[in-house]
UniProtKB/TrEMBL annotation:
Highest classification ranks of the organism: Bacteria, Pseudomonadati, Bacteroidota, Flavobacteriia, Flavobacteriales
Tree of life domain: Bacteria
Annotated protein name in UniProt: Addiction module component
Amino acid sequence: MNMNQLKIELLQGIINCNNEELLKEVEGILKSFPSEVKEAPQYYSKEEDISNLTENQIMILEKRYQSYLKGGSKAETWENVIAEIRKEHGF
């Protein structure tokens, strides 16, 4: 068994465990070891967030959002949108 298979089996065991005392012991063991995550910090940095939107698309969205905040545009709940689609298209 390789390490990834062992991790999966341990996770499944933890998920299926209903013994709070045992789970707290496992938590204590895991907390006693330092994290070994060695990934580059840019994967977690907000400043490095990359958007797939163009500058023009972002500008349009910002204008629409500002209009919404000022009461200049109407918003619908997701439930209403789904109901309207079902009504119009018979889904």
